[in-house]
TrEMBL record:
Any one Gene Ontology molecular-function term assigned to this protein's record: hydrolase activity
Name the UniProt record assigns to this protein: Alpha/beta fold hydrolase
GO cellular component: membrane
InterPro entries given in the database record: AB_hydrolase_1, AB_hydrolase_fold, AB_hydrolase_sf, Epox_hydrolase-like
Occurrences of domain AB hydrolase-1 (ranges): 12-236
Keyword tags: Hydrolase
Hydrolase as UniProt keyword: yes
Organism: Nonomuraea deserti
Superkingdom of the organism of origin: Bacteria
């Protein structure tokens, strides 16, 4: 199955992988800026998000992204990913390091992280609301948790729509299909990496960025004092130049 996707622009490929509170629409503020900066932008909906249906057989998100790149003729790409999408990008970059020209991880999750008290409580409360059939309540929990104080009403509504859609698609699935787990080592990643965290985010994601910065060979960690969990939606006017500047620098060294 091909992931629902769209492509814009010409130039070196950039693949955008969304957070699991969102879908590919979260990158609406970034696509025009990246195209204007000279990139070919590929973005997709992972399985069970946006317009991609739930899986009906075992699957692997990183393999799905690799298959999509193959289908679109992108041998190499920079990966830009947020939150749960960052976990996918880390696996991809560790399995196929030569295919990744640069890596930007915004508030990334990581399979090697053990959740702290704050994140465990968030997950417990989210599960409780979903099991009670309160998808509106679970959606609002995510909107409150994911967005920092500088997010405007439009950003909050965008996350609300994307998260509610994901919950509805996933709850309606007739059966739950387990993903295929692939063990990887982040030390296999060779691409230059920018790790971005937000001061107003849950502590787990700041800790993950700091730990990965120590373990990756060519990484730096930038904490944004104004940001929550989804800085690219909260202040695209600040994130877009940061993103493009890093990608230009990374491609100049290739």
């Amino acid at each position: 199955m091909t992931l629902t996707h769209d492509v814009a622009g010409k130039g070196p490929a950039v693949v955008l992988v969304h957070a699991t509170a969102c879908d590919r629409r979260m990158w609406d503020p970034q696509v025009p800026a990246l195209v204007d900066a000279g990139y070919r932008v590929l973005r997709c909906d992972l399985r069970g998000f946006g317009r991609t249906p739930m899986p009906d057989r075992p699957y692997n998100n990183a393999q799905d992204v690799a298959d999509l790149m193959d289908e679109l003729g992108a041998e190499q790409a920079a990966l830009v990913a947020a939150s749960g999408g960052g976990r996918v990008a880390l696996e991809f970059a560790a399995r196929w390091p030569r295919r990744v020209t640069a890596l930007v991880l915004l508030s990334t999750a990581w399979a090697g992280h053990e959740a702290g008290a704050e994140l465990r409580e968030f997950g417990r409360r989210e599960d409780e609301l979903i099991e009670a059939g309160d998808l509106a309540g679970a959606t609002e929990l995510n909107v409150r948790t994911c967005l920092g104080p500088q997010a405007d009403d439009a950003a909050r509504e965008k996350v609300r729509v994307m998260q509610r859609n994901a919950f509805e698609v996933q709850v309606a699935a007739s059966e739950e299909v387990e993903p295929i787990r692939v063990e990887t080592e982040v030390t296999e990643i060779t691409a230059p990496c920018l790790l971005v965290s937000g001061h107003h985010d849950l502590a787990d994601f700041r800790q993950i960025a700091a730990r990965l910065a120590d373990r990756l060979a060519h990484a730096r960690h930038l904490e944004l004092d104004w940001a929550g969990h989804l800085p690219s939606l909260e202040r695209p006017d600040l994130v877009n130049p940061l993103l493009i500047g890093f990608l230009h620098g990374a491609h100049a060294t290739i």
